[in-house]
Amino acid sequence: MFIKQLYTGCLSEAAYYIESEGEAAIIDPLRDTDEYLALARERNAGIKYIFETHFHADFVSGHLELGEKTGAPIIFGPGAKTAFKSYNCKDGEIFKLGKLSIQVIHTPGHTLESTCYLLKDEHDKPYALFTGDTLFVGDVGRPDLSSGNLSSEELAGILYDTIRDKILPLADEILVYPAHGAGSSCGKNMGPETFSTIGEQKKTNYALQPQTKEDFITTLTEGLASAPNYFAVNARINRQGYDSLDTVKQKGLTPLSIGAFKKLLETDALVIDTRHATVFTQGFIPGSIFIGLEGRFAEWAGSLIPFNKEILLVTEPGKEEESLVRLSRVGFDKVQGYLQGGFETWLGSGEPVDLIIDVEADELAMDIPHDPNLVVLDVRRETEFADGHIVGAQNLPLMEMTDVIHIAGFEEKQNLYVHCAGGYRSVIAASLMKRQGIHNLRNLLGGWNKIKEKKTIKVEKDASLLN
Question: Is 218 helix (H, G, I), strand (E, B) or coil?
């Protein structure tokens, strides 16, 4: 028996490679499938099955890519309907993999087709449960995503029954391998570990504790942050299908001269600049949207960028393919190419350049008492803001700042100081605001982490927002 968790940090996503006697199965693959294929080749194995735990909403899955390259069947849980050839497994069905077996356990609640896969060893003893978004470490899947006409409360009630009937009866020593870890928007209370055991979850996971169905529903549905904008798009793509990544690369990895790049700009294409935040602020093509590869790149792109726009890339040289692949993971297939030579080509051609002024927390501390037009704009989440913020700061979470920002609340005379927790989200926000004609702004280096160190900046909490 060989199992490998293939974890992608920027999406907090885990795919799995299982192998026995030269036969392999992949569970919940990403769209870029090279890693799975390379691992199978390295181990002289053939991929026999592709299992999906559900229709993922937070990334485009690699089932089609992998199926076309291996001939392996794509297996979804009961009731899943796809626009491409796939196999609907049945609750309790067994799939043989070398000396191992994989048993289907239909576990609706996160979505109706959600399914866990129970891996049994050569002695038919349950060894590991691949739980998808049904069960996480410390949490369960949110019940408000992609499930037709059912309400969140109805799905939560279904999940309650699933937990009691399908999960709790399992043996304590069984390993739990979920599809996501901390940072994912598919749950709200995930722990930092990427695997656990059934026994540990029975002890520590709030959703597995003795409680009434009514209490479970209330706990699960209250306090849910809005799902990122791209979730519905990705769920639809995963049902309907998509172009191969090779096709997307063929078009999107086209090097563009300065002339060709400017011509495409005239067609209203969006420029996504993926360089580091501290490099971007020193100079960029006017109108560019910053989303740096150093952060949760794909998640922020999916949340903030419209899917109907053509995209042009400006990257650090050598990072063009990584930028495109990470965009493709959340369904962006309209990349038209990248500026050959990157921003230095633009700069060297004498084209106009924009910048964002970076300031230290010391400068903000000095300006607050003396500038009546100073406005602190905090772009962290509401819960982060409630847990501590500068007195008088305005909260506009980045997740709400789509490419078209409602700017009626900002006045030309205001001096805006934009910050987040550490300095990544604030640069995204500043680039979006610049696109909307708001130029009298500064980016606070180090964000809230630096603010807390300055005793001269008054801060407060808002306990009413924490509940």
Answer: helix
